[in-house]
Write a structure and sequence with these properties.
The structure holds three protein chains of three kinds. Chain A is built from two helices and four strands. Chain A is α+β, with helices and mostly antiparallel strands. In chain A, helix 1 links the parallel strand 3 and strand 4 (61-67). The model of chain A has no long low-confidence stretch (mean pLDDT 96). The longest helix of chain B is centred in the C-terminal third of the chain and has 19 residues, at 241-259. In chain B, strand 4 (92-95), helix 4 and strand 5 form a beta-alpha-beta unit. By secondary structure, chain B is of the alpha/beta class. The chains are: A alpha+beta, B alpha/beta, C alpha/beta. The interface between A and B is medium-sized, with 24 and 22 residues.
């Protein structure tokens, strides 16, 4: 999917993450992460961000993430919301039906 | 064995606030209500919905009765809210401001459709209807019996008093009739009745007085506005020794009836029906939650 | 070698010969007499004790390169004495000092790091090194030997055995007379108890009292006597009263902290030791203050009175005394302004020597009589070992304080902490730094549950009491699993081989070391 507009989701409160998702046509994925727990969880956070981008079929994007110690599923939810907003689509609720 | 899930206290956690959602799992409330409605600004409905979906579907707290409150049935958000809320697999969905039986029927049908579509067990998700206007109150019994999914009505006092042109007071005479009316409907329908909040979080004495009334009128539980209210409210739902002993006798009679393969079971000359049995189980669950050791009944 | 809490420690760290922690009550008592550098002679005639400025006092003490200087930390982050003294020493060109305060508080502009970098200080010993200094040390700040961190009870012991020999003790006081009688209880910058400095005053070779408030002789009350004081110096300001503690520590509104505090008070009230004459120590911070308030209510409901509160004091404990629910307060430290001033106001609130409070090698210490000790922690592991120094990224986050002493001394030690902080789990497989051995920890209280330590000496008694009160408990492994299920398992922090800090236990043995954090 293509990013139609820049989207910002989440806050800079403790236990949250603020994600800015920007178009990056033809240049692949660029993920910048600032995190208070980068030493312990940096790799895990980037993996979650990448996984959500893949599930939306987004191949070109700049992700700027400011993490304040968000738990994994908060990051996932924020990222999904950012993808929906940036691509102008609704979340595919049927996607996770068994 | 069917276990009675306690519904003494319901605590709201806003879908707009991840830290509240995480922390809410650790307090002693029986029911945790993840909120998509009033506590979430319109601009954040999409993010709250995803946060609640991910939390409830993949990280739901253990030992809680998990509820999702969706947006109003005439709002632009309700369709997607239901798509997300049903698939998140909570114990119940709480519907704001229900006024007519048909509204409840429609929402329950929609839940069934989504359950079917998603390959889920149909009918498993329960529904709580919030009664927060005089119309809802007048139709309370009709709403309570609209669908087998509906297991509780909850009184919303702030909106109700507004619809009545009444003034909200601490003593609560303005909602006294509504409380009784709602209870009457619930009792006749055989479902649970949840009382309105006590709004002043800095008045524990007031909360105690209000909760004593909640309990004495016959309510099964109460909605809390702050974690600090939970332990106080729970403490009012601790059964007496007499009630515990009676509950034990009811269940013994039921067990005995099962052993003897009897259809109908009686105790002290009166028949034990399903609601009586459930009430007995609730009494024992309340006793256990209050830390009362019951001989032979503890798991 | 591996010590009794399973930590890998070298036998020698530079010139420091390691005595490994060998287990509870395995401490070796010293046979030689107490070491003191105090001389039965005077440096100055009584009427000449008051010096015109810091520089002349430092010179009069004969401070030279490589000597040891000490301070107390009772002015907390409002301290203005340490920087003035160190700046003066720097101007005098004296270098390579050993800096041995009771604790290093976070002083900025200049910070202690600046005095290390310019060579004024090259060795440090304290109960904790919070703030800029701590961060710099774990990142490999150049010192000539690792920092030695000792709990409050171990510092007086190290002084009395001669392991910590003090050349000049600088004692800040909020009131003093020209003969050196001084106190922290009165004056505009009152900090309360001077309990940490008693041992310095009796054992250092030189004692300098520094105040901004000279009072007519005699200074009443007197905390430290003129008989130990060589010089008195008046400076313009000894501290910032706002940072020393403006009022009583307020009751928190954070529901999570209130819940933990309530659970902690529930446990104390359920114990059979909660009876007339019981004793407790709660400490500073949001949870302890709330816990004190709940405990006061339980005490009132039970119609009993506690005999004493111990250690660091807060306004909440003073309030309990005023309500008649607590007979006496033994203050080694005052955490807020209400507690600081209360010593002078109430006869049963008394200032005590930190050594009397926590030093296990005394003929006896007050901790030997303590029923309940409430402790904070950064991390606890499944062996109940406690980390109160380092965050999980290895950064210096706290000090030892009296934590290890209280855990060991109290009949029932209760560790309170949230199960996660942001994404950082607090209950883990193995703490990053072991400060307090798990064997001395009776209970861990989190918002997600209460875990009893089956290996604690009073486990059976406590388990029985909690069961009788209907208080549910879980295993420590359950809490760890709960924490990890929320946060995921953190990637371990990598360290180099360089040891930056040696962590001593209250018996003077080495319980752990802190190694330098590896940075990319």
């Amino acid at each position: 999917m293509e990013i139609k507009q820049a989207a910002i989701v989440g806050t800079l409160e403790s236990s949250d993450i603020q994600i800015s998702l920007l178009p990056n046509p033809g240049k692949g994925l660029e993920i910048q992460l600032q995190s208070v727990v980068k030493v312990q969880y940096g790799d895990a956070i980037v993996a979650t961000i990448t996984e959500v981008l893949e599930s939306f079929g987004i191949t070109d994007a700049i992700v700027d993430a400011a993490d304040r110690g968000a738990l994994d599923w908060v990051i996932r939810a924020r990222m999904q919301a950012a993808c929906c907003r940036a691509t102008g689509t609704k979340f595919n609720w049927k996607g996770e039906d068994q | 064995m069917q276990t009675a899930k306690l519904k003494r206290t319901s605590l709201y956690a806003s879908g707009a606030n991840p830290i509240n959602m995480i922390q809410a799992a650790f307090y002693n409330e029986d029911c945790l209500v993840y909120d998509m409605e009033d506590s979430v600004p319109n601009a954040e409905k999409d993010t709250a919905r995803l946060l609640i979906y991910n939390t409830v579907r993949y990280h739901r707290p253990a030992n809680k009765y998990v509820i999702i409150r969706v947006n109003g049935i005439y709002s632009e958000y309700i369709d997607e809210d239901l798509e997300a809320a049903v698939r998140a697999r909570p114990d119940a969905i709480r519907i704001p401001k229900v006024e007519y039986r048909e509204e409840a029927v429609r929402i329950c049908q929609r839940i069934t459709e989504i359950e079917t579509e998603a390959g889920m067990e149909v009918g498993k998700i329960e529904v709580w209807c919030n009664i927060e206007s005089y119309l809802g109150l007048i139709n309370a019994y009709e709403i309570a019996t609209a669908d087998p999914r509906i297991v509780a009505l909850a009184l919303g006092a702030e909106d109700f008093t507004a619809s009545m042109k009444a003034h909200r007071t601490k003593a609560g005479m303005e909602i006294f009739y509504a409380r009784n009316m709602l209870l009457t409907a619930c009792r006749h329908a055989g479902i649970e009745a949840i009382d309105a909040v006590f709004s002043d979080i800095n008045d524990p004495e007031g909360l105690k007085e209000d909760t004593a009334l909640t309990r004495n009128l016959g309510f099964d539980g109460k909605t809390c506005v702050h974690p600090r209210q939970i332990d106080i409210v729970n403490s009012f739902f601790t059964p007496s020794e007499k009630e515990i002993k009676y509950a034990l006798r009811v269940l013994e009679a039921v067990e005995e009836g099962k052993r003897q393969k009897k259809g109908a079971v009686t105790l002290d000359g009166s028949m034990i029906d399903k609601p009586m049995e459930l009430r007995a189980r609730t009494t024992l669950a309340q006793a256990e939650a209050a830390g009362i050791a019951i001989g032979g009944m503890r798991k | 070698m591996i010590n009794a809490v399973g930590r890998e420690i070298p036998e020698k760290i530079g010139n420091y010969v390691v005595k490994p922690y060998a287990g509870p009550r395995e401490a070796i008592e010293a046979e030689q007499p107490v070491c003191s550098r105090r001389k039965p002679s005077k440096r100055a005639a009584a009427e000449n004790k008051l010096m015109p400025d810091l520089k002349s006092a430092i010179q009069a003490c004969g401070l030279k390169d490589g000597m040891t200087i000490s301070f107390h930390h009772s002015f907390r982050e409002g301290d203005k004495i340490i920087v003035q003294v160190l700046s003066c020493i720097k101007e005098l060109g004296i270098k390579g000092l050993r800096f041995a305060p009771s604790a290093v508080v976070n002083i900025k502009n200049p910070s202690i790091v600046d005095f290390v970098k310019d060579g004024t200080i090259n060795r440090i010993q304290a109960s904790g090194i919070c703030g800029e200094l701590g961060d710099a040390v774990v990142d490999g700040l150049e010192l000539s030997e690792p920092v030695i961190l000792r709990p409050h009870g171990a510092r007086p012991h190290a002084i009395e055995t001669g392991d910590l020999s003090i050349d000049v003790a600088f004692i800040g006081a909020s009131a003093a007379d020209d003969f050196g009688n001084c106190t922290g209880q009165i004056g505009p910058n009152a900090c309360g108890s001077l309990g940490y400095s008693f041992i310095d005053s009796t054992n250092a070779e030189n004692v300098v009292v520094i105040t901004d408030n000279i009072v007519p002789f005699p200074c009443v009350p007197t905390s430290i006597s003129q008989m130990y004081v060589d010089y008195v110096v008046k400076v313009d300001e000894i501290g910032d009263p706002k940072k020393i503690g403006a009022g009583a520590t307020r009751m928190t509104k954070n529901p999570r902290d209130l819940l933990i505090a309530q659970r902690c008070a529930d446990i104390m009230a359920a114990s059979r030791l909660f009876k007339d004459g019981y004793s407790f120590q709660t400490g500073a911070g949001a949870i302890p203050v709330a816990c004190t308030n709940y405990l006061a209510d339980y005490t009132e409901q039970a119609g009993i009175q506690a005999s004493f509160a111990l250690g660091g004091m807060t306004g909440a404990i003073v309030e309990m005394h005023k309500r008649g629910l607590l007979r006496s307060m033994l203050c080694s430290q005052s955490f807020d302004a209400v507690a600081a001033r209360a010593i002078a106001e109430y006869p049963n609130i008394v200032e005590i020597d930190n050594s009397m409070y926590a030093n296990m090698f005394n003929k006896s210490c007050a901790l030997d009589k303590l029923n309940f000790g409430v402790l904070g922690a950064l991390e606890v592991d499944t062996d109940f070992n406690i980390n109160i120094l380092t965050g999980s990224s290895g950064e210096m986050m706290g000090g030892l304080g009296g934590g290890p002493d209280v855990a060991d001394g109290a009949d029932i030690s209760i560790v309170t902490l949230p199960i996660i902080r942001g994404r950082i789990p607090s209950v883990v497989d193995k703490v990053f730094t072991c400060c307090t051995p798990g064997s001395s920890v009776a209970v861990v209280v989190t918002e997600a549950g209460i875990a009893l330590n089956p290996k604690h000496k009073n486990y059976e008694m406590l388990k029985e009491d909690l069961d009788a009160a209907g208080i549910k408990t879980v295993s420590i492994e359950y809490l760890r699993d709960m924490a990890y299920s929320l946060t995921g398992v953190p990637k371990p922090v990598e360290t180099t081989d360089k040891i930056t800090c040696i962590v001593e236990y209250r018996d003077g043995t080495v319980i752990d070391v802190i190694r330098q954090i590896k940075r990319d």
